[in-house]
Each structure stands twice: as C-alpha cells, then as structure tokens.
Amino acid sequence: VLAAPTDQDVLALKQEALHLQEELQTNFRSGSRGGRFSDIQLTILEQPGREQLTQALEHNHYQVLHYAGHSNLGNSGGKLYLVSSKTGLTETLSGDDLAGLLVNNGIRMAVFNSCRGSYTATPETNGGDGAGNLAEALIRRGVPAVLAMAERIPDNVALNLSRLFYRNLKQAYAIDLSLNRARQGLISSYSSNQLYWALPILYLHPEFDGCLK
C-alpha cells in the first residue's frame, strides 16, 4: 500500500515498490534453504482511501500488508494516513479499526515503513499522553506479526531493508530469522555504527511460529 496525501511530506514510495517487485521476481531456488522456495507475489495499491483498502483486503486472499507512507500515535491505537479519493488529502484510519480489518481478512503480518508505528526509547517521541501506536493495536487484536520502524528511516535504507527482508522470506526463512539476516545486511552495507539495523522492530505472538505458508 502506497499512500502519500498531498498535505503530507513527499515520499519516494513508487521506487521502493518497483524495486521490491523486481526483487521478488528473481529466482533464488538454487540457493534456498533445503531447496525450499516461496512464491511471493506483490500487488501494488496506490493512494487508497479507507473504502478502497477495505475492498482490496476483502476481495483477495493476502497474507501480508506492507504499508509505505505516514503514520502517527493516537488514542485509538495510532493513526494510518490514507488518501481521500475526492480531495487527495489525508484520510485517517485508526489502528484499532485497521486491526479489526486485518484480523477479519486473515492478514498474518503487517509491515509499516512509516513514522511512529511503534514506541521508541525516546520519551518525547512517544506522546506521553497515553497515545497508542499501530503495532500495539494490531498485536493486541491478534495479528500474528507486526514489523514497524522505531524512527523515521531514510528512503535508501528502507529500500535496502525491504529487499533483504523479502529476499529471505522468499527463501522460506521464518519472519524473525529473515529480519535478523536483513539486519546483518544493513550492518554490512552501512556499518554497525550507523544504527539503521536497529530501526526495524518486530512483534510476534508467542503462539505464532513465524512461518508464512
């Protein structure tokens, strides 16, 4: 899901989606773990509003929602910013409403390349007024896995992270191991002194084995 309302900061979203699509079309069968290989298909949904997103989830059988855009803390489980089809301006979907939508439609993992999708170690960026975030809302409602960024992540790093993460998922690694391998790739690309590897935060239900089937 690519959402860039005209009243928010401009983001280079389409490039990330196209590079990820190219990555997923690459055949890694010969190097996959134990010969296993996952066929991951990507559907790009550009500039959806609440209604369009709801229809897309209800009419298809997706396992993963990957959102690139803007989000924030909020009193109803955080806020996801979508796009009004009439004005092009921000249309807000609360984290609680998003959680219900994802659970009802069988989503097993949500990935947020956006700001304030989870709590951080810095108190002033956490609102301090009891405001919730998307990751907390989704995990609480039963979404098995949520990957969110602790801080704003640069576009080039987000692109690299996505490619590394889904490359490992495609090779049939579990979600947590795929993220660990992606983190190591970020360290190799930018060094451990650049804390980009620490930005992605993974939440997993203890009953979930982390494998997408």
Distance between the termini: 21 Å
> Counting H and I runs of at least 4 residues, what is the number of helices?
6
Provide the low-confidence segments as ranges. Answer: none
- Computed Rg: 16 Å
The SSE order reads HHEEEEHEHEHHE
What proportion strand? 15-25%
DSSP E strands, number: 7
Question: Which class best fits the helix and strand makeup?
Answer: alpha/beta
Shape: globular
What oligomerization state is this entry in?
single chain
Largest sheet: 4 strands, mixed
Strand order of the largest sheet: 1-5-6-7
Could you report the average pLDDT, rounded to the nearest whole number? 87
How much helix is in the residues? 25-40%
Account of the 3D structure:
The protein has 6 helices and 7 strands. With 213 residues, the protein is of the alpha/beta class. The strands form 2 sheets. The protein has a 4-stranded mixed sheet with strand order 1-5-6-7, sandwiched between helices. A 3-stranded antiparallel sheet has the order 2-3-4. It is globular, with a radius of gyration of 16 Å.
